[in-house]
Amino acid sequence: MRIYLSRPHMSGYEEQRVAEAFSSNYVAPLGPQLDAFEASVRDYLGHDVHCIGLSSGSAALHLALRIAGVGPGDEVWISSMTFAGGIFPVNYLGAVPRFFDLDRENWTIDTRHVAEELAKAAVENRLPKAIVPTDLYGQSVDLSALEALATHYGVRLIVDSAESLGASIGGRKAGTGGDAAVLSFNGNKIITTSGGGMLVTRHKHWADQARFLATQARDPAPHYEHSTYGYNYRLSNICAAIGLGQMQVLEARVARRREIFTRYQRTLDRPGITFMPEPSNRLSSRWLTALAIDPETTGLTREDIRLMLLEHQIESRPLWKPMHMQPLYAGAPYHGSGFDERLFANGLCLPSGSDMTDEQQDEVIERVAVLLDMGR
User: Fold this and answer.
1) What is the dotted CATH code of the domain comprising 250-375?
2) CA nearest neighbour of 200 among 374, 41, 10
3) Which of 52, 66, 98, 149 can pair with 199 through a Cys bridge, CB separation 3.0 to 4.6 Å?
4) Do residues 66 and 93 touch, judged by C-beta distance below 8 A?
5) Helices 250-267/237-247 angle, 10° precision
6) ∠ at Cα 357 (352, 360), nearest 5°?
């Protein structure tokens, strides 16, 4: 049987919630299950935040950027190593990205580079409209440092927490940072709504504006009245019902993925293998187990391992290709030493789904270990 990188993991609670939605006939974009799902995420995050269920994480980022006032020609500073959906909304608004490298100590955006460039930009009167750092592979960015910088320079901070629900830093839950945060419930995430996302914000007026724009920007009137354009971005009540069931097992899903990571780290500990670090003040959700392979030390490349696993019906995946290396963003400004470029060249994500059995993980470990030993 094929071993997947990260597939949906149903708990059994979802069917009950979906049945409740069907029995009430709320088979629509809005309904009590969506209200309950938003409340469930809000209660879990434990902060004074507002949660708006949307059709995708990209939709959430699009709305957040628009509400932040991002428009044509504005700069948005962003983690270069991120998923395409975490950058494309910048293009939707005609804005211009400026990309940043990762910190080798935590594999999230290097706040030192951000601080240096903000200081220069302030002097040159070219501050960005927003900063969008990515919580990579389930690890929170340095929220305190980024929030302090954003406040000092008067720049909006929108945290891409699509991969990190269940993580924390310094006791704060991922998804509670900045002016807004973006969550994703795609099928491969820690929990899923089959497809969906959420905008989380501490600003009530942002939340109100997001709900308005996400429902076609319909003005209060008995007929359809529009003073601006909007989107069909609200999360389906049926999908929200799935998410409501999934929220009941979120902590168990995070615990299982962390357990999977620990087993990989313990059994594949060899010279030339580096796992994504976890600083002492952070708790990663370990959405995916990410590691880097040094070809000079191991005698193997990332592709040697990936293709070997593929031959045995085991799915693995290279780390995200940095956006400044993508043809679409050729020539875009980039700040860093190229650490993310090296991670992409040598990085691999191993199967990490919370429904993966110990026996399946043992097979992955054994096949990788044998190849590593042969390479030496």
Assistant:
1) 3.90.1150.10
2) 41
3) 52
4) yes
5) 60
6) 80
Q: CA 319, 332, 66 angle in degrees (round to 5)?
A: 85
- pLDDT given at position 375: 66
Name the CATH topology of 13-247. Aspartate Aminotransferase; domain 2 (3.40.640)
Tokens standing for residue 127: 């501050």
Nearest Cα to Cα of residue 270 among 372, 131, 148, 158: 372
- Structural tokens at position 54: 């949307």
How far is Cα 31 from Cα 235, in angstroms, rounded to an integer?
A: 10
Give the residue ranges of the chain where pLDDT is below 50. Answer: none
Q: Where are the domains of the chain?
A: 13-247, 250-375
Strand order from edge to edge, sheet including 289-293: 273-275, 289-293, 347-350, 317-318
Q: Distances from the Cα of 30 to the Cαs of 23, 54, 183, 201, 203, in angstroms?
A: 15, 10, 19, 20, 22
Please provide the average confidence, as pLDDT, over all residues in the chain.
96
Which residue do the tokens 């696993």 mark? 309
The whole-model pTM stands at 0.96
Pair 81, 102: CB distance under 8 Å:
yes
